Amino acid sequence: MPLSNEGEHADTGSVEPEFGSGTPLVVFQRDAPSVQWTGVVVAARSGGCAARISSPPQWDATAELLLIAGTPGKRWVASGRFTAAQGEVVGFTLAGSWQPFDIRKSPRVAADLQAEVRSVLGQSKQPGRLIDISAGGMAVSVASKPGGSMLEVGIWANGYAAQLPCEVISTSPAGDAVVLHLKFQPLSPPQQAFVRQVVAGLMAGQHSGPLAS
Question: How far, rounded to the nearest angstrom, does the alpha carbon of residue 3 sit from its chain's CA centroid?
Fold first, then answer.
């Protein structure tokens, strides 16, 4: 089964992935972050990937997918689409090259997403915009500084939302707004998965062109 079809992926400055057969792989459906599948890599290169996935679904060839290969500290991320399947072995065509995604280094990624900031102490709410995010925290622009240092921030991405507990580390002025620099408080597994998918999706979007039709 071919890993990719020539000309079906935008590959500028291809990077050969530094992983091989047997590497853990997680596949996310980008327009539905709650949907994911796990498996292991059979073969990988800059333009495509084949993986073994137990009980694979009925794949949608038009769905935009996000592939994360490796283990914490040594992960790679790429966008792609389903190409073909033979039993449990599934082929994906990539929209760009594999990019390093080291979750332990908490890469900060620029964003522009709807947010809502609620003060745990004062119970006040106000709208905001997420301007960057990492595995460890985020920065949110709001009209005024909320009361107290403990906040709950709602984030919307790809039609899904999560409420994330945060602590204010510092603030900085930005014209008529205030930027809150936040550190995540202990997150539940679903909250961690949401953050990981948002970060990885933004990273993959920065490093790849539009997915081929």
Answer: 23
